[in-house]
């Protein structure tokens, strides 16, 4: 049985809408207004304030801006990392170079992709099959996951932004990405031809080596070549002069950053409530990564209340929290408010939106997935010690919310936060023990393999 949209049925729909005064009023408002802005509840805005019961000692300055790029996962990591570093160095403001890690991610990610294309051939995956087609759709995205930034920092270290500043293609990645996409698809065909011919490892390695030399040239032209060593000169809050270096970025991380922020001591917890993905187990996603020989992307799946408690505990102890979420839902962007009740869709459209399905059903039916990474810097706890609201440092500049800081209700956290990262000292032993089990592999197209990439 199927429904045909006959002229009579369309006329019935039209007459119904035209008889509804609320629909006509909403139609008039939408003529010149963003539908989401029209639905914002004034009462919720009036009840919102950036006052919190627990807050990290000092927040990072300046507010960062990823601009037209999908580097939020890198920005969020470096924004968390800079807080203890600023305190240690007694700085007024500071940024790590996001472009530095982005450069190495592009290089490593292209190499990872090409090696996966070789693996797919050896696994018998046809180029028209779902897996290879999915991977070829976007072979070099900007977005990433926590374990990917761990790979980059562990291998390449970090450096101050002043020593490797932004370039046009770091802030506006579309053109560079399209060049790389074209080359990676071309290289995939070339690799399959080499493998079809004789499958010789030496021939494959020779082909990959040449291909990556061309990738390195493209990325270097777009982003610049990071210095192998650098010297950092700066004034502290007391206006005293300091000089660090010359040293490599990895030496800078190991000697000056790692003592206050050891990225390998951080634990990534996720909330995936789908019935088939049991809590208390670890998962990974097929072909998801950014570095050959790097850390595997691992998800420790836990109930959302565990994530909220661990994030609260970290903030109570003065440590900010990296997290991944679906940023676009129930979000009043200009005001910087994330709250399930911020939009009154029912009054405007006669139906509710976003929360008619459960969090699990939204994942199952393609209505939800992680899109963006930010950091928590404050939380308000009620008399029972449970979180009520959160302060969020974003990486979209100062134009959103309170000079770049958003406010999130805990009802929004439960529905749209999928991932947090805290120091393992805040994680119960029984949760840590889950990492000792073998991960369950989800398919490459599973929504838990989504990459944090959203920009303003």
What this model shows, in words?
- One of its GO terms (biological process) is proteolysis.
- One of its GO terms (cellular component) is cytoplasm.
- Its main location: cytoplasm.
- One of its GO terms (molecular function) is cysteine-type endopeptidase activity.
- Keywords: Coiled coil, Cytoplasm, Hydrolase, Protease, Thiol protease.
- With 456 residues, the protein is α+β, with helices and mostly antiparallel strands.
- The protein has one domain (54-449): Cathepsin B, Chain A.
- The protein contains 17 helices and 14 strands.
- The protein has helices at 7-19, 21-32, 35-39, 42-46, 72-89, 98-122, 130-137, 146-156, 168-171, 174-197, 201-223, 249-257, 304-316, 345-349, 359-364, 410-416, 429-432, and strands at 54-55, 230-235, 241-247, 266-270, 281-285, 299-301, 321-325, 331-332, 337-338, 372-381, 387-393, 405-409, 417-423, 440-442.
- Strands 1, 4, 5, 6, 7, 8, 9, 10, 11, 12, 13 and 14 form a 12-stranded mixed beta sheet that branches. A two-stranded antiparallel sheet has the order 2-3.
- α6 (98-122) packs antiparallel against α11 and α10 (174-197) runs antiparallel to α11 (201-223).
- It is globular.
User: Helix amount, in percent?
Assistant: 40-55%
CATH topology: Cathepsin B, Chain A
**In the CATH classification, which architecture applies?**
Alpha-Beta Complex
The CATH superfamily appears as Cysteine proteinases
**Oligomerization status of the protein chains:** single chain
The biggest beta sheet reads: 12 strands, mixed
The radius of gyration over CA amounts to 24 Å
Active site: 72, 372, 394
Family: Belongs to the peptidase C1 family.
Protein name: Bleomycin hydrolase
Keywords: Coiled coil, Cytoplasm, Hydrolase, Protease, Thiol protease
């Amino acid at each position: 049985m199927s429904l045909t949209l006959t002229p009579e049925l369309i006329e019935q729909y039209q007459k119904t809408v035209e008889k509804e005064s609320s629909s006509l009023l909403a139609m008039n408002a939408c003529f010149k207004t963003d539908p989401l802005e029209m639905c914002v509840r004034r009462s919720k805005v009036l009840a919102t304030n950036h006052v919190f019961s627990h807050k990290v000692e000092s927040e990072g300055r300046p507010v960062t801006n990823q601009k037209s790029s999908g580097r939020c996962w890198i920005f969020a990591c470096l924004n968390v990392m800079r807080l203890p570093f600023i305190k240690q160095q007694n700085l007024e403001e500071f940024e790590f170079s996001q472009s530095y890690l982005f450069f190495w991610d592009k290089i490593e990610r292209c190499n990872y992709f090409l090696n996966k294309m070789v693996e797919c051939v050896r696994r018998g995956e046809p180029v028209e099959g779902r897996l290879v087609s999915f991977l070829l759709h976007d072979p070099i995205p900007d977005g990433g996951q926590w374990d990917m930034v761990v790979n980059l920092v562990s291998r390449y270290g970090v450096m101050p932004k002043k020593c490797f500043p932004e370039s046009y293609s770091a802030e506006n990645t579309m053109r560079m990405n399209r060049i790389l996409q074209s080359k990676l698809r071309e290289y995939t065909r070339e690799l399959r031809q080499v493998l079809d011919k004789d499958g010789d490892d030496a021939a494959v390695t020779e082909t990959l080596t040449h291909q990556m030399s061309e990738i390195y040239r493209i990325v270097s032209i777009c982003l610049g070549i990071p210095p192998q060593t650098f010297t950092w000169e700066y004034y502290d809050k007391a206006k005293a002069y300091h000089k660090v270096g010359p040293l490599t970025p990895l030496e800078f991380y190991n000697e000056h950053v790692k003592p206050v922020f050891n990225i390998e001591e951080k634990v990534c917890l996720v909330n995936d409530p789908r019935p088939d993905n049991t809590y208390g187990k670890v998962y990974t996603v097929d072909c998801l990564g950014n570095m050959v020989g790097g850390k595997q992307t691992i998800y420790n799946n836990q109930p959302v209340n565990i994530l909220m408690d661990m994030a609260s505990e970290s903030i109570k102890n003065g440590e900010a929290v990296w997290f991944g979420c679906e940023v676009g839902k129930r979000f009043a962007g200009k005001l910087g408010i994330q709250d399930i009740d911020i939009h009154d869709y029912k009054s405007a459209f006669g139906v509710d939106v976003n929360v008619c399905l459960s969090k699990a059903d939204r994942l199952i039916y393609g209505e939800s997935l992680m899109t963006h990474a930010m950091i928590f810097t404050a939380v308000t706890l009620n008399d029972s010690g449970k979180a009520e609201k959160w302060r969020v440092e974003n990486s979209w500049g100062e134009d959103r919310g309170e000079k770049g800081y958003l406010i999130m209700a805990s009802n929004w956290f439960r529905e749209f936060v999928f991932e947090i990262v805290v120091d393992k000292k805040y994680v119960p032993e029984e949760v840590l023990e889950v990492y000792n089990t073998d991960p369950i592999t989800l398919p490459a197209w599973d929504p838990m393999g989504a990459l944090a990439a959203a920009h303003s």
